[in-house]
Each structure stands twice: as C-alpha cells, then as structure tokens.
Amino acid sequence: MATDIRLKEELPEITEALVATYTECSRLNHLGHQPLPSRDAVTDILADLADVLYPGYARRQNLHIGNVEYYVGELIDGLHDKLTVQVARALRHEADCGSDAEDFSQAAPDLEAAAQQKAITFLSRLPDLRLTLEEDVRAAYEGDPAAKSHYEIVFCYPGLEAITVYRLAHELLSLGVPLLPRIMTECAHSKTGIDIHPGASIGPGFFIDHGTGVVIGETCDIGRNVKLYQGVTLGALSFPRDGQGNLLRGKKRHPTLEDEVVVYANATILGGETVIGHHAVIGSNIWLTHSVAPYTRVLMEEPTLRIRRPEDREGPLMYHI
After folding, report:
1. Mean pLDDT of 209-225
2. Start-end of CATH 1.10.3130.10 domains in the chain
3. CA triple 84-85-87, angle to 5 deg
4. Which of 81, 143, 198, 233 has the smallest number of CB atoms closer than 10 Å to its CB?
5. pTM reported for the whole predicted model
6. Distances, alpha carbon 110 to alpha carbons 90, 107, 256, 309, in Å
C-alpha cells in the first residue's frame, strides 16, 4: 500500500469534481428515488428457478419423489417473496419515469399488490414452461449426435441455459414487468455468449448448437423445432424513424423463421419483412435480407481453393485445412 499520505489530500477535490458530474450527467445515476431492482437478487432468483425447473441438477442433490415436493414448495414460497419485491421495485421505477401504462400509474401500495399478482401469475406458468423446456431438451438431443444423454444437455449445454433464461424472462415481459426480463437475459448473455431479447417469440423444440455469438432480436418470430448454430444473427436491417428523426420503437424489425428451419454458423438474416419459410436451410456465412420460400436451401458457392506444396517456390504457401 502506498505510504505518501500527502497524495491523499487530492482525494476531496477528486470527489467534488466527480459529484459535480452527477447533475450534468444525470442519466448515469439514480439518486433520490426508490431502490431499483437488484442484479444480485435477480441472479439469486434465477438460481432458485433453475432448481425448480431442473430439480436435482443444480444446488440440491439427493432429491427423490418423497422429498422433492417439500423442497420445491420451500423454493416457490421464497420465490414469491423475492419476485414480489423486485417486481414492485421495477414497477415503481417505471411509474417514477412517468409511463402512461395503467399498472405503473398507481400509488405505491397498489404497485405492491400488482407486483404480488404478477409474481403469482408468473409462478403459475412454470409447469407449462417445463413442458416447453422438455421439448427444447429433446430437440437438442435429437439434433446433436455428440450428445450422449439428456442429462448431458441439461448439465452442460450453454444453449439450453440461455433458452431457459429467455423463456422465464419472456413470461415476465408478457406480464408487463419492466427491467427484470432484460437483467435476466443479460445475465445469461454474459455467461453463455448468447444474446436473446426477452421480447422475441420462440416456439418449442428450439436448439442452439454451440451458441457463442448468437444474437436474436426483440421482434423475431421463431417457429417450432428451429435449429441455430454459433454466430447466427437475427437482426434489424434498418431502424424506422418519425418525422423528427427519432427512433420508432415497437415496430417489427427482425426476421421470422417458420417451423423446422435450420440456420448454420455465422449466417446473418436481417429485416422485419424477411420470412424464412418452413423447412428451409440457410447455409454458413450467408447474408440474407429478403424472404425465401419453404424448403429452400440458401448456400454460398463453394470457394476455389489454391493449394501450394512447400517445394513450390512461386507465390505464398497456401494449405487447405
């Protein structure tokens, strides 16, 4: 540790200069308001939800049919309390921001009641959500010959983790809960490298193989039994603006993938009017901004390889890997 105490005399001046920016750069601070949702609390909620959705895989071992109901019941009771607090904070912040939404314009006690109802409704959807996740696990096992078992997929596959968190976040978003869904999916994004906006609509049997670098935009519509590989981007082609040049939010900006579509590595599909017909196959490294019909195969022409042996001295050495 530094021992020159005289240098510490500069710290009050640094503090004063920093605090002065809190007025000028007000978007970067949250002062004088009710508490925001806690990222740590949301992470804890996701861990509890993983135990509920995949009992025996996560924190608690030695579960069996005789004790699982007690364990899950305790988790559900805790989730009710944790969710109510965090949802209420999110609703209150939205109300402070002057939203016109009905839920957000009520008094604080009503926000607490609204938060509790949303928490209960969300928890009531978990049984159906597990049925959807069962289809996702099935699709992963059937779509990846490297998978040795369904257990391996639940334990190890980052794609399933990202999809699980997305499906939870999507349910909260559909209930009108702000902030928390994005916090959830960004937690998964930071862990898996897979970025799925909670507003996207994704059918059951969804499989992301490998997954790193996958981006799925807010207004994507994805059908049943769709398979994506790493590096796929389902993005916006352009951002519509009003007469003053401001972004128009909530418009369909991202593509639609119908049932049974396969998109290979590093393909980019853009645009809200772009529809990939059912059973279509999009090859690697494709850049696609228009619709394709069902059963279409979109492939790059095979590149011409130039291979030179080490004894060939003309030009640079080139090897085929």
Report:
1. 97
2. 31-193
3. 65
4. 81
5. 0.88
6. 13, 5, 38, 76
Compute how many other C-beta atoms are within 10 angstroms of the C-beta atom of residue 55.
Answer: 15
Tokens of 236: 């916006």
Predicted confidence (pLDDT) per residue in 178-198, tens digit: 999 999 999 999 999 999 999
**Where are the strands (E) in 3-76, listed by range?**
none
Instruction: For residue 102, give the DSSP letter.
Output: G
Instruction: Please give the Cα distance from 58 to 80 (Å, whole number).
Output: 20
The Cα 320–Cα 251 span in angstroms is 45
- High-pLDDT (> 70) share of the chain, %: 92
pLDDT band at 78 (very low <50, low <70, confident <90, very high): very high
CATH topology classification for 200-321: UDP N-Acetylglucosamine Acyltransferase; domain 1 (2.160.10)
Q: Which residues pair with 222 in a beta bridge?
A: 202, 257
**How far is Cα 140 from Cα 146, in angstroms, rounded to an integer?**
10
